[in-house]
Specification:
This protein has 140 residues and is mostly helical. The chain has one domain: 2-Layer Sandwich (Nucleotidyltransferase, domain 5), CATH 3.30.420. The protein has a two-stranded parallel ribbon with strand order 1-2. α1 runs parallel beside α3. The longest helix has 21 residues.
Length: 140
């Protein structure tokens, strides 16, 4: 399940808050997060971020340098949201706050998760359908 947070990131405290938001979102869907996969960006290798993950009981897995295929799902999502959400939104109107940006992202993500058919190799249909299928398999 994809999530977007329209907030200027200043460093490890912001990435820690984003992790907290993700954990709440996944918890609402009955999913337990055991690890976080990141690239080697400075906000992810900072000791404050690592300490935050430890306090949450999460492992920190890092994508190896020069291995773009490991990060391809994230990169593809960023391209999709840019093409389908941000460019049309900025063409239609001027935003004056991050709250307006977040509202635009939230509306697009609702469509992305529930109505938009995903054309990836590992997903056949909207992400929410895959999540529901995962939950049914876990319960069985």
């Amino acid at each position: 399940m994809a999530m977007s947070w329209a907030q200027p990131a200043e460093g490890p405290p912001d990435t820690a808050r984003f992790v907290d938001r993700l954990l709440r979102q996944y918890r609402r869907h009955g999913i337990t997060v055991k690890a976080v996969l990141t690239d080697g960006g400075p906000e992810y290798i900072a000791s404050d971020f690592w300490t935050h993950l430890v306090t949450k009981g999460l492992r920190h897995e890092r994508i190896s340098p020069r291995s773009p295929n490991h990060n391809s799902v994230c990169e593809r999502f960023q391209g999709t949201i840019l093409q389908e959400c941000w460019r049309p939104a900025f063409h239609r109107r001027r935003f004056t706050s991050t709250r307006q940006l977040q509202g635009e992202a939230d509306a697009w993500l609702t469509d992305y998760h529930h109505r938009r058919k995903n054309h990836g190799d590992y997903m056949r249909g909207p992400p929410h359908q895959m999540l529901d299928s995962f939950k049914r398999n876990e319960a069985a």
